[in-house]
Write a structure and sequence with these properties.
85% helix; 0% strand
């Protein structure tokens, strides 16, 4: 998949794709806010679609900035552990 994402980045350019990251995350935020404001009109497929777009763009951002998945996973683990410790105390 990285090969495909690199092809996309090379085609559109890094700066353009960084702007797309912001756009896709914004669309996800709007979708979540709509759910939060009125859960009875919740459209699960819309959120899945926006989450997918955002995850694709975040993967591209990682490639653009040379961030390894292990770096992200390490920090995620630390943050989860910190939150669990807060819950337990």
């Amino acid at each position: 998949m990285n090969k495909d994402l690199i092809k996309i980045i090379n085609h559109f350019g890094k700066d353009h794709q960084i702007v797309k990251v912001i756009e896709e995350l914004s669309e996800l935020v709007v979708c979540i806010a709509k759910y939060s404001n009125n859960p009875s009109t919740f459209n699960k497929h819309r959120i899945i679609d926006e989450m997918s777009d955002s995850l694709i763009m975040l993967e591209q951002l990682s490639l653009i900035l040379s961030i390894k998945q292990e770096q992200i996973d390490s920090i995620k683990f630390s943050k989860i552990e910190r939150t669990l410790n807060l819950i337990e105390s």
